[in-house]
Specification:
The chain contains 6 helices and 5 strands. It has helices at residues 72-87, 105-108, 110-119, 135-147, 157-174, 185-197, and strands at 31-40, 46-54, 60-66, 97-101, 121-125.
């Protein structure tokens, strides 16, 4: 039976909702993606970051950074701050939003999935060994490292931590995207909001 693939898959207790389709959305606040990455300082210190990004307008809504490891608590804080950044202080989202990430322990922890469900987020994970399924987040990491990290002073963790807010703000306010008609994420959001509020005559 094993040779012919007739055995049932072994139960792992992990979420089975995987994402393997198109990442980009045509409206904001339908799918958010998240990923973690590392910045190596010149003095050998390391900073680990996780961020949340909208899969339509590409705005980085929130980020967390630490010189330790990314924990489930930090990812849950990231989720809560992302909800607040888009919808203000609220116990629950007005509609379900997908939260796309890889299968990192902090993302697939039972407490994280429970918290996401309570907040109104639908946790989607990329298939194992397929990071390209979260391609928008992967692309952002490459851009951020190329245009900000590798162009600035990385003397030590304190120096980098002080620069992070400015880097993320510049990305959101000024960084043009081909997929956004060469607008920055926040310019695109303003443009999108104008289209929504403009009455049809």
């Amino acid at each position: 039976m094993k040779m012919h693939g007739l055995l049932l898959p072994r139960y792992s207790g992990k979420p089975t909702r995987t994402h393997d389709g198109r990442i980009i959305m045509n409206r904001s606040n339908l799918r958010w993606c998240s990923d973690g990455f590392e910045i190596a300082c010149w003095n050998k210190e390391r900073i680990r970051l996780a961020f949340s990004m909208d899969c339509c307008d590409r705005e980085v809504m929130c980020y967390v950074a630490t010189t330790g490891g990314l924990s489930g608590d930090m990812i849950r804080d990231l989720m809560a701050e992302s909800v607040e950044a888009r919808f203000g202080k609220t116990d629950r989202l007005p509609h379900r939003i997908q939260w796309l990430s890889d299968n990192g322990p902090a993302y697939i922890a039972r407490e994280t999935r429970t918290f996401a469900q309570m907040a109104g987020l639908e946790v989607c994970t990329t298939p194992f060994y397929s990071p390209q399924s979260n391609g928008m987040a992967e692309s952002f990491v490459k851009t951020f490292k190329r245009d900000y990290v590798h162009m600035n002073d990385l003397a030590d963790a304190i120096t980098v931590m002080k620069q992070l807010p400015g880097w993320f703000n510049d990305y959101n306010e000024n960084h043009p995207h081909k997929g956004l008609k060469m607008m920055s994420p926040r310019e695109y959001r303003k443009h999108q909001n104008k289209l929504v509020t403009c009455p049809v005559k």
